[in-house]
Write a structure and sequence with these properties.
The complex is a heterodimer. Helix content of chain A is 51%, strand content 8%. By secondary structure, chain A is α/β, with parallel strands linked by helices. In chain A, helix 3 crosses helix 5, helix 7 packs parallel to helix 11 and helix 15 packs antiparallel against helix 16. Chain A is globular, with a radius of gyration of 21 Å. Chain B is an alpha/beta fold. The chains are: A alpha/beta, B alpha/beta. The interface between A and B is large, with 38 and 39 residues.
Amino acid sequence: MSDVNPITEALGHELLRSSLDHCVKCTICETVCPVSNVTPLFPGPKYAGPQAERYRIAGVPSLESSVDYCSGCGLCTMHCPQGVQIAELNAHARRVVKDEAGVKFRDRVISRPTVVGRLGHPVAPLANFTLGFGPARVLAERVLGIHRKAALPKFAGRRFSTWAKRHQGPANGRKILYFHNCGTEYYEPDVGEKVVAVLEHNGFRVEIPKQDCCGLPLQSNGLFDDARKYVLKQARIFAPLARDGTLIVGNATSCTLMFKREAREILGLEDDPDLELVSRQTYDICELLLEMHDAGELKTDFQPVHETVAYHAPCQQQGHWIGKPAMELLALIPGIDLREMDAKCCGIAGTYGLKLEKYDIGMAVGADLFGQVEAAGAGVVACDSETCRWQIEHATGRPSKHPVELLYQAYGLG
Amino acid sequence: MRPSRHFDVVVIGAGVAGLTAATRLAQSGARVCVLAKGVGSTHLAPGLVDVLGYDPERVSSPSEALPSFLDAHPEHPYATIGLDGIGAALEWFGRVVDAGPHPSYRYVGDLSHNHVLPTALGAKRPSALVPETFAQGELVARRGTSSGPICVVGMRVLRDLHASLCAANLERDGVAARGVQLEVDVGRAEANSLGLARCMDDPKFRATFAAQLLPLLHADERVGLPAILGLRDPHGAWSELERRLGHAVFEIPTLPPAASGIRVYDALRAALRAAGGRLVIGASVVDVEREGDRVTAVRAHTSGHDHVYGARWVVLATGGFTSGAIELGSDWHARETALGLPLRGLPGEGEPRYGGDYFGEQPMARVGVAVDSSLLADGTSNVLVAGAALPGAEPWREGSGDGIALSSGLFAARTVLEREGATAAA
């Protein structure tokens, strides 16, 4: 069965293009673009998006390739008061540029976290040694184009799904489906364990279906056909289980945004009924917990956490368009000295900041955040996305945690 | 449509009017959430608070001109808000900026007189309350204001301020002025005023900039820069340049994006946050639930599933035609897009809708959401309207945009507080 429907993709693209007429060239998107702010290599969302889009014709070679420097953070779309889908249009333009130039071997590798995970996991000590070994990183930079200093995670040496299979949850409770993503599976299984514990503490019975990558890294590296296969595979797994109204929750805000919106809009999958259902019923973990709190259903038996915590909302979290629920959840913890960071982006943007030609840009993008973290004297940086956490730890030398880890600590579940 | 979040007040729109209403309410202890499709005019306009600039001639004192203006325009938002309400709004905003994220940065002025400041084209702009960084550009000599010839500074990298054009127009209007062109290295071929403002946040850039500019200045000149004096510490950047140059320095507004306007957004947002208000950007309100004449919840389109926000009160501060808050269809049918509220001021069948003079009276321009004397929307008992969504004004002809936004935002908040107080007392 082929899930790829070129007609649907073309229609989806036309749908995005129909938002172009709403652009009044007001420049608000340019005020929020983290990349064009630090490098002239990307001329900014207005130029690369609504303006250049008029000159892009199907089948005609791209006039220029600067859109490859767009990190896909989506802040332009979020802040546009006229509803122009700038970032989504740029994702299409980037895909065409990559198609023409040929997608690099590096990008084909780093966009498949589950493949990397399966290869690295069984040899975790060796893989971790290699990742931390200078000469090996220089080699990886030369051969693959992954910057020698870039923030690569360490393999945990155990898999979350192995823990999940053995885990004895409560027999009763409100059922919920957990999409744990690749970062939790291979690098941060403890985050997944804490998510489950916090959910169970609040009366949920957590089911964890066997799952794979959501396809987002493939999509952002221009590999739309492969991305579509991955995301639809997840939709086929989760939709039948969610059809009775059961919610799907995830802790990686990038992956949940892929389910909620990005795959449907960017990959032209608006018509897929399974993905539509998954989109509607997917929640970010903090979104879910805050909604419970607003309804008076969240347990608040928090013990004090005496820590200065800086909270950074990742770009893809902001793309949910739900505000910053993590801020309000963390504020419930007594004793916490919570500081909201006001920077735009940490600079990693998934795989963007790993790349040799983009590492320096990513670090320059993140400089504002890193400075604010230092100034706050934060003991911990709370952040919803794993790649952002790795970038923040790399750049600031301070530990970075998922907000749920702090709730877990405050609940005294450890 | 079951609300999963409940607020005392949901404010729709994150421009000056919406953020003002939300902040004032949150400061009084209300649970407030601002929903906005995107950010608003703060990023485009320079952040000068014009209250009444023209009636129809240039106004030198808003407090003197307003009483007769209110009499002549009973449908104008100011007629509801009143002189005291407008004055209180300016004072409130001044306090927000004083307590804001920009150290020592403040606004100067009040209703007693308008500053008259140069535009990028060298025209005269009357404005009641302005950032200190603009004030030295005063073009009408008064006691205590700067005088002396003006040196307008342009830069090759910035195409939005042509110094010699600005200066030539000022000269034509009797103001001694000349333009100079500065070569600054910003690492790229061109930059807008926001890009330059970010450069100005860097002390090294400021030092180089001042060193390059100093030899070009003549004695006694005031230095007019495009509005680029930083986003983080505009007071610091401004006073440092004045010190290094030994000349008075002021900002001149340019084309969008506006660094000085973003400072307004940052100050209001910080105040909202400090008062415990929520701000959700990206969420457009697409539907509403009513019980009789009350709006009980609004549905916001977000990624994936929509969010439903329950509210005791709703403040609509979505703007007018330009922001898409009011739409005019090709069938000449106009509608308010978020809540579907009735409009006022629509020209009747067969009446002129537009005038031939672009800058002249435009009948469609006064269209807005119909409200009563408490700014309550017609047909509702808990929806207040603020800012450019209100009918009866022509902000660009009157020079009244931010004055209306601020004072109506504060007035809407006051109505809510009064009614809630009355309920609590009862």
